[in-house]
Amino acid sequence: MTTSPPPPELLVWAAAHLPGTVTAVDCSWPRATSRVWRVGGPDGGAAFLKVSPDDDAFTREVTGYAYTARFLPERQVPRLLASDPGLRALLSTALPGRVVRDLPLERGVELQLNEDAGRLLRRWHDHADTGTDSDRAAVQETMGAYAREAAECREALAGRVPDDVLALVGAAAAEIPDLADRLPLLFLHGDYATRNWLIDSPTGRHALIDFEQARYGLVVEEFVWLRGALWPERPDLHEAFFTGYGRPLDAVEERLLLLLTVRLGASYLRTGLREGRADLQERGHLALGRMTARPVRS
Question: Which terminus of the chain is more solvent-facing, meaning fewer CB atoms within 10 Å of its CB: N or C?
């Protein structure tokens, strides 16, 4: 996480595209790769300045901005004002609202927000093509790596988790690649979690930010965080989301979503045990425990 203003050359670059820029407020997430500032001046013109962690992330985000500018409304996604591959810098418009993650909301507001989030994601997906053979090969490689990781986790977690959990981790190792091959690709947001949702309280309007993970993949990849962290405890939000999305997941999608979420939880737990990190151990146990409870159906 950044703890100081952006480097002078970044402010100079931003000022060239946003006259009057004189201040920068750190808005980064608490991780080393997050470098984001809200910039603005006395004459208004607030925007967000971001430095991508690497060239691939920069390219993905620029591509994501271009995609959303074609297909999604300006009131719900920011617009890219300028980008510089040398600096890996992006300057985007500032939408009204607050990040939804950990924000206390009334139940009715939450339900409407999740329905709107499902509707916006469906609009994103409806305009997406299915990618190229190269995109399919990249997804196959990723899914194969997930399966191998699940197999390693199963070995590492033997005797440390209940048998039903261990069986699910084994199923993830055995089934993920074949299930993935049975589903089409689409261009994804890639990080469709509440940390990237905004809500403007006066209007109730939902918006979406952060396209750093935009890429071709499988629809269910959009839902892994929601499936593991939100929906098991809040089936009403799950129902609202898919009301907005407009269709349920089919049986293959449901199974793959479950196993991808299991793989992630097992990865958290194994890493936490190996590195002595209580936070990751807790996160892993919680996710895996939720996956062996009564399943949430779309």
Answer: N
- Beta-sheet pairing, 197-200 with 98-99: antiparallel
Query: Which helix (H) or strand (E) segment is 46 a member of?
Result: strand 44-51
10 Å CB burial of residue 165 (0-12, 13-18, 19+) is buried
- Give the whole-angstrom CA distance, residue 94 versus residue 36: 12
The sheet with strand 89-93 has its strands ordered as: 23-26, 36-41, 44-51, 89-93, 80-84
Burial grade of 286 (CB within 10 A; 0-12, 13-18, 19 or more): middle
Superfamily in which the 8-95 domain is placed by CATH: Phosphorylase Kinase; domain 1 (3.30.200.20)
User: What percent of the chain has a predicted confidence (pLDDT) above 70?
Assistant: 95
pLDDT at 1 over 60: no
Lowest mean pLDDT among 31-40, 108-117, 119-128: 31-40
Model pTM score: 0.92
Concatenating the DSSP letter of every residue in 184-216 gives --EEE-S--SGGGEEEETTTTEEEE---TT-EE
Residue 186 contacts by C-beta under 8 Å, 6 or more apart in sequence? 125, 128, 129, 130, 131, 216, 217, 218, 219
Q: Which CATH number fits domain 99-291: 3.90.1200.10, 3.60.21.70, 3.40.50.300, 3.30.470.20?
A: 3.90.1200.10
CA–CA separation, 51 and 7 (whole Å): 11
**Beta carbons of 1 and 32 less than 8 angstroms apart:** yes
Q: How far apart are CA 47 and CA 21, in angstroms?
A: 9
197: which strand partners?
A: 208
Quick one: angle between helices 107-126 and 55-71, nearest 10?
90
Task: Render pLDDT for 107-121 as a digit per residue (tens, 0 to 9).
Answer: 999 999 999 999 999
- 114 by Cβ neighbours in 10 Å (0-12 / 13-18 / 19+) ranks as buried
The residue ranges of every structural domain in the chain are 8-95, 99-291
